[in-house]
């Protein structure tokens, strides 16, 4: 897990299309929710969600890196190395997401609008957690194929 405060730094970590970085940098609370595709190896989901604090499951990815970029609000995220975690639901043969039982040894990171969290396939994570109390946030989740890592 890496926390970055400048979304343009993504180019230091991945061979990500410039258009995707420019798109992320231009996001505002008025950007429409939806899926935006930039290449075979990179897409971004813009979404409005309500934070919560249900610590029953974590997700991990097989081949994609998650970049969770906060557009509006604040969020807490739990994360832990997924090695040794108990699988709750394995990824389908063509899927990318495995669900794990929550690990009490997880660490947390809090981030605010304009900041991003980079989660690698080895990172199990539980996003969308409330910092103080549940509230609506807007975020973008970029999925980048790990093969594009520099």
CATH class: Mainly Beta
What portion of the residues fall into strands of 2 or more residues? over 45%
- How many discrete structural domains? 1
SSE string, helix = H, strand = E?
Answer: EHEEEEEEEEEEE
Order of strands in the sheet with most strands: 1-10-5-12-3-2
Biggest sheet descriptor: 6 strands, antiparallel
What global shape is seen? globular
Secondary structure layout plus pairing:
Blueprint lengths: L1 E3 L13 H9 L7 E6 L2 E9 L6 E5 L2 E9 L1 E8 L5 E3 L7 E5 L5 E6 L3 E4 L3 E7 L6 E10 L5
Antiparallel strand pairs: 1-10, 2-3, 3-12, 4-8, 5-10, 5-12, 6-9, 6-11, 7-8
In short:
By secondary structure, the protein is mainly beta. It is built from 1 helix and 12 strands; from the N terminus they run E-H-E-E-E-E-E-E-E-E-E-E-E.
